[in-house]
Amino acid sequence: MSKKKEVLLKIRDLKIQGYSDETWVDIIKGVDLTLHRGEVMGLIGESGAGKSTIGAAAMGYARDGTRITEGSKIEFDGMELTTATEGEKRALRGSRIAYVAQSAAASFNPAHKIIDQHTEAPLHYRIQKRMEAQEDAMDLYERLRLPNPKEIGFRYPHQVSGGQLQRAMTAMAMSCRPDLIIFDEPTTALDVTTQIEVLAAIRDIVDQFNTAALYITHDLAVVAQMADTIKVLLKGNEVEEASTEEMLNNPKEDYTKSLWAVRSFESPQRQRPKDTVPLISVKNVDAAYTGGPKILDDVSFDIYEGMTVAVVGESGSGKSTTARVITGLLPPSKGEVLFKGEPFPHDYRNRDRDQLRQCQMIYQMADTALNPKVKISEIIGRPAQFYSGLHGADLKNRVDELLDLIELDPSKFYNRYPPELSGGQKQRIGIARALAANPTFIVCDEVTSALDQLVAEGILRLLDRLQNELNLAYMFITHDLATVRSIADEVIVMQQGRVVEQGPKDDMFTPPHHPYTDLLLSSVPEMDPNWLTTLLEERGIDNLGDAAAAQIDPNDPKVQ
Amino acid sequence: MSLFVIGYYTLLLVVSCLAAYFNKRQVFLLAFSLTLVSFILGIVGGTGALKAVAICAGLLGLTAMVSYAFREFLIQMAESNVGMSFSNNPPVMYVCLIAPIIYCILAWLLGWRFGEFAFALIIIVILLIAMKTETAKELRTAPLTAAFGMFVIFTYAIAGIFAPYIAPHGEAEVISSAFAPADAEMLLGADQLGRDMFSRIVFGARNSVGLALTATVAAFVLGAGAGLLAATKGGWFDQFMGRVADVIMSIPSLIFALLMLSIFGPSTPVIICAVAIIYAPRVFRLTRAVAGNVVVMDYIEAAKLRGEGTGYLIRREILPNSTAPLVAEFGLEFCFVFLLVAGLSFLGLGIQPPTADWGSMVRENATLISFGDITPLIPAAAIALLTVAVNFVVDWMLFRSSGLKEQ
Fold first, then answer.
1. What distance in Å separates the CA atoms of residue B147 and residue A132, rounded to the nearest whole number?
2. Which of A190, A392, A452, B349 is deepest in the core (most CB within 10 A)?
């Protein structure tokens, strides 16, 4: 792919410090980076590794509360950015260096039309007149394969879907034909099927204009499709750098190998116990939010004691709504939920304490699921006190026992507050709170999707161990099929509020599939650098994402 | 040229040069621009003007020093970590708190002596409970203005609580002729009936501040309670409370207060009720908005699914996450309430004579202003100083609660 081997960005001995607890702490501890024209470099690492900070530093920018220390050198096309004035740096941003943020929905200004935001930079730098810039924008929209390229720009950001918005943002970054684009996790917030569209579009356009790019992500399979070289970062230090092929085939450092090995965990598949009543049984449930359209349409499935049922589907497919129906937060408009054969009251307010205790929930965002002003001891202790009436020493013993169970040291965590903990530790506290009630059934709503892969694997192993020890049943909501493969016993695939396929895991991962399952499965990026190219050849460029989902033939024999 | 003028310019120039030499940009700019201004002032106003400048600067410097020392004193107190030993011994804490409260109430009802000391004891115990290492950390972030505010509030509190012991004369005691000028006996002169102005200012601290504080607390109990309930319950209750608040807010506040006072007569309980009703809707709106952001969090959902009652939800889950803005709002509302009460007193409908009250004192002595006497301005200044001081503290709290620190 490399045509001209001219150095575009040269970073030498980059050190960035952040201000915390009244001292300056090193965040980036001396990273070197060389990027040639037209080259795409992937930066990968866990959160806190300093990927985004390096991305911002490549624009000569340090976020509030951070500073680039003296001695660091950032040279962009012969210009030293660390000593440049703010005005000089501002002249580069948008015109020669562009940035694509993780959440396009949060980065677009909701009060202006997309095309007006698109043409802002070319107009500001007087590169194009307004009409020219608009025509150019439509041309870019067409190249990025947005539907209705002539018209889509005149909509407001909220009128466009997430994947389309992310592509519009890439188009916007391209508006001045920059030399360098920094992609900061551009597909992390998207579903797998949408992700492919965006990935294909980004790859094409970067190729067409011979733009150099820094591609920041924590997903190895994605970076394998996009980058020419990969740099692995750990806690502000560089671990290793190599070309994509070499990095995938023989990583040198142990840390890199451990990243590669993450997806290896797989719990053995359990079988349904025979001749027993299912623990939770969802029967023909319809549900809708007040005044809204029907979200769930005739959903039925069973969850047996001690089993893990994974519910997969794109966002908006009704996975979380199903969980809300089971927990009683959203009473169904039709159908019922049975618990051990007995009907569960529809509204959680009508359930008695024992019924509430049986069914617990673990949330996706541990940050909002734990009260920041309450001590860990009370967060975990409260359910034990509330349901079992424990007091004093008994309560303390129970909390210690629970903290042991989730592999955290009781003496260290007993008196701390949630904001002092890391993401993985918070999620463990969330699990302990659910366990404190002695439940038989736990709803896990995307519990690992906000975590790094290594941490997520730890959580999955913990959940699996707890299941074996305490005979728990899980309803595991996720959009990540790798997670399904590692923990599920049975799989339910949902699309637009309907269950399209369900069955034991092994059956689900072996063909023939329902076409939608097939689409989901084939859209998961694989660790093969040619995966995207092959897939595009197989499916054709216009048969991705929503388009592919719409093309499923309702009369296909596999659609039951 | 007098020795003073030479010394004056020498000091300024030495400070400017030293600041420039040690690269203290701001100090240099301040000192040197003051020097340049002084040249002109000296020519126009002579030595007198320079002396005035020197006195102002000296006062400012003294204020800054007092604030700094007061902040350090508070930090030292907090570092002793007395509060920890209290919170580790809940029974001791409750005894220390409840005993003086009971004594205070009995003293008030039965006319026992030393009620003031019991009240002071309550405040001291509350302060001691707050003295923890975390508080010391917070206090270090306080700017000098906030420290100044705390110092002023502290002084007013002392003056208010121990008024009978500090004031040299009684509240309503006529000791000289009307409008007698200040002398060694009467620090600030006499008012229109010949009562000691200083004593009345000191008693005024108790009456005016006490009334405003009670009214604000009442407004908060009403407004915050309703707001938290509305946010937690939602539905028709929320709508109903919101409309009630709208109705109260649609009545002009001063007119409403005047109406209430002319119907029920201007007594202290009526003033407190009227003011509390006027200000409760504002507190309600703020509380509901703050709590509204908290109730949508997942931890509230988790608590609801656990089967917790409304009381627990409000007390343990919502309140701890909304205290910071509420405390800041308390400071602001206190100022507004204070000004409203002073305004009512000025109109003659507030605290009734002969009880000393700053607002009515301004009115009673207002005639003096046409003779160029500053006596009526003294109670006004007392109001202004307290308002400014409270706002300094509130600014600091708002800054802390604005999320800059939380991240």
1. 59
2. A190
User: How far is it, in rounded angstroms, from Cα A258 to Cα A86?
Assistant: 41
Residue A423 belongs to domain with CATH number: 3.40.50.300
Q: Report, as an integer, the average pLDDT of B306-318.
A: 89
Collect all residues of chain B within an 8 Å Cβ-Cβ radius of residue A383.
Answer: 306
pLDDT tens digits, residue range A522-531?
Answer: 777 777 777 7
Close Cβ partners of A413 (under 8 Å, ≥ 6 residues apart)? A376, A403, A421, A425, A429
The pLDDT tens digits of the residues spanning B47-81 come to 888 888 889 989 999 999 999 999 999 988 888 88
Are residues A227 and A101 both part of a single domain?
Answer: yes
Phi, psi of A80 (to 5 degrees): -85, 120
Q: Are residues A95 and A177 in the same domain?
A: yes
Count of the separate structural domains present in chain A: 2
- Shortest CA distance from A329: residue in chain B: B305
Which CATH number is B169-407's, of 1.10.3720.10, 3.40.120.10, 3.40.630.10, 1.10.240.10? 1.10.3720.10
Closest alpha carbon to A96 in A121, A62, A131, A117: A121
Residues 388-407 of B with CB under 8 A from A: 406
Closest CA–CA distance from residue A29 to any residue of chain B (Å): 23
The answer to whether residues A127 and A237 belong to one domain is yes
Separation CA B300–CA A491 (nearest Å): 30
Mean pLDDT in residue range B102-113: 83
Of A361, A371, A372, nearest to B305 by CB-CB distance is: A361
Q: Which domain holds residue A512?
A: 280-524
Contacts of A332 (CB under 8 A, 6+ apart): A285, A286, A287, A296, A325, A346
Residues of chain A with Cβ-Cβ distance to B317 below 8 Å are 371, 374
Q: Identify whether residues A294 and A175 lie together within a single domain.
A: no
Compare A398 and A293 and report the one with higher pLDDT. A398
Q: What is the mean pLDDT of residues A479-494?
A: 84
Residue A11: inside a domain, yes or no?
Answer: no
Report how far residue A367's alpha carbon sits from residue A507's, in angstroms, rounded to the nearest whole number.
36
Q: Which two tokens stand for residue A57?
A: 């530093």
Give the model confidence (pLDDT) of B169-199 as tens digits.
888 888 887 777 777 777 788 888 888 888 9
Q: Spell out the domain ranges in chain B.
A: 1-80, 169-407
- Interface touch A373/B320, C-beta < 8 Å: yes
Interface with B, mutate which of A371, A377, A386 (most B CBs under 10 A): A371
**Do residues A229 and A323 share a domain?**
no
